[in-house]
């Protein structure tokens, strides 16, 4: 049975409902928190599973080692490459990843980012930027 994701327009809480295809649209979706029928269906993200080969094909512009030359001197290009790689991984990345990539795309150097985000390495004694 499919799960449908809703939000209550009265209490503003999200909830899921299990119903058959034939039930969808014919029975009201009552909020599981407050009981209100003033609800709206939420459209959730769709994920498409890709094979490792298909993900690697999208990295062709980085297959040539010369394409990676000078990235350490060009934070914007480094940020662009990291964002593309992050999207192609198909995995949930920590919020710190987006913070670092946003800063790189604005032209901030890795050294400046490490200075601005001293806790980036976490509690494991990591060095910070290199751990992402």
Would you give an account of this structure?
The chain has 132 residues and is α+β, with helices and mostly antiparallel strands. The chain folds into two domains: 39 residues, Single Sheet (Rubrerythrin, domain 2); 80 residues, no CATH class. The protein has a three-stranded antiparallel beta sheet with strand order 2-1-3, with no helix packed on it. β1 and β2 form a beta hairpin. α3 packs antiparallel against α4.
Number of strands: 3
The biggest sheet amounts to: 3 strands, antiparallel
Output the helix-strand order: EEEHHHHH
Low-confidence stretches: 123-129
**Which percent bin holds the helix content?**
25-40%
Order of neighbouring strands in the sheet with most strands: 2-1-3
Specify Rg, calculated over alpha carbons.
22 Å
From the spread of the alpha carbons, the general shape counts as elongated
Approximately what portion of the residues adopt beta-strand conformation? 5-15%
How many domains make up the coordinates? Answer: 2
- Number of helical segments with 4 or more residues: 5
Provide mean pLDDT, rounded.
79
The termini sit apart by: 39 Å
- Alpha-beta classification: alpha+beta
């Amino acid at each position: 049975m499919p799960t449908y994701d809703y939000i209550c327009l009265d209490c503003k809480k999200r909830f899921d409902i299990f119903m058959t295809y034939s039930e969808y649209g014919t029975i009201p979706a009552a909020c599981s928190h407050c009981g209100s029928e003033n609800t709206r269906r939420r459209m959730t993200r769709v994920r498409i599973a890709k094979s490792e080969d298909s993900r690697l094909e999208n990295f062709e512009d980085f297959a040539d080692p010369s394409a990676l030359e000078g990235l350490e001197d060009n934070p914007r290009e480094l940020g662009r490459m990291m964002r593309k790689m992050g999207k192609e991984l198909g995995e949930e990345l920590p919020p710190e990843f987006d913070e670092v990539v946003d800063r790189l795309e604005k032209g901030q150097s890795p050294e400046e980012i490490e200075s601005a985000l001293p806790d980036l390495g976490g509690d494991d004694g990591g060095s910070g930027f290199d751990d992402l």
